[in-house]
Amino acid sequence: MTDKKPSAKIQEVLDTLRASGARITALRSSLIGLFIGSSRPLTAAEILAELKKKKLAPNKSSVYRELDFLLELGRIIEIDVLEGMKRYEWQPEHAQHHHHIVCTQCGVVECIELCFNEEELSAKVAKKSGFAVTSHVLEFFGVCADCR
Amino acid sequence: MTDKKPSAKIQEVLDTLRASGARITALRSSLIGLFIGSSRPLTAAEILAELKKKKLAPNKSSVYRELDFLLELGRIIEIDVLEGMKRYEWQPEHAQHHHHIVCTQCGVVECIELCFNEEELSAKVAKKSGFAVTSHVLEFFGVCADCR
DNA sequence: CTTCATGCAAAGTATTTGCAGCGTC
DNA sequence: GACGCTGCAAATACTTTGCATGAAG
Q: What is the CATH number of domain A1-93?
């Protein structure tokens, strides 16, 4: 699968959704566009603000419901970097498991990929705890280059 | 420093607090006792319930304020395992940095110590992101032995 | 014209704050 | 008796829900 222009990518997603019986509404397509165009995870408040800029101004309930919808389909995932609110991140088809680093000064959140054996670590944890380990969360905190 | 009976340990903590000007109240000593006697991180609601069992039934504001108090002193730390509420964990004097595993069925939270080089990992992240990495959060999810 | 999606207002959950009174030292 | 601590009620922040209306297919 080759890379596509964002607009083509959005169209592809919308087509798939429509084919599965979902309606394509202004909120839905704008929100998906927003996610695809964003390299960072977004909060509900940020989404609301961004959509307002685009003259959409949906109700917050609708945004939360849309997030639930995309979550259930696995199109986005929920992440939590201890800010007291959740962030949501688009999952490209072959999304690689990755982590985030949060600037404790300005709050910016960036994605990072790590190259260490997380499988092995999970296996260790499973052995130690007796749990069947299904997932994990690993987030870093620090001060970004700009804030230093 | 040798191990002490919980009650002796509590007394020691209370003495230090008193010496620094804090008052020793029923809530304060019970809460500290609760933390010292618990091997797992607690939520505000759990604390409230436990104290009620001990016929204390404090107001939730007081519990939250007491948690803030202990947090500022570094006697407890805040942890977040994506439950929508915070957990608080007692920090023994030479507390070792560790992690948690949460059962996605019954919600039980256990502590685990990992033996892998987290310093090294943080350094890698710092290099990759350009951030000055100050801390990280690593939590595991799975199904506990009882729930399987 | 049938569902799915939306707006609105109200409720829910976790936590915080202002303030007057009480308890510890 | 001074000052820290407490209860209470109200406020805040984020998210969820019920219900009637609206729009996509």
A: 1.10.10.10
Distance CA B140, CA A127 (A): 13
The full set of domain ranges for chain B reads 1-93, 96-148
C-alpha span between A87 and B32 (Å, rounded): 34
Residues 66-85 of B with CB under 7 A from strand D: 66, 69
Q: Give the C-alpha separation, B83 to B102, whole Å.
A: 10
Q: How far is the CA of A81 from the C1' of D25 (A)?
A: 40
Q: Which of residues 21-50 of B touch strand D (CB under 7 A)?
A: 21-23, 25-28
How many Å does it take to go from CA A59 to C1' D21? 15
What would the mean pLDDT of A36-44 be, rounded to a whole number?
A: 94
Domain A96-148 has CATH 3.30.1490.190: yes
| CB–CB contact A129 B101 (8 Å) | yes
> pLDDT by residue (tens digit) across B88-110?
999 998 788 899 999 988 889 99
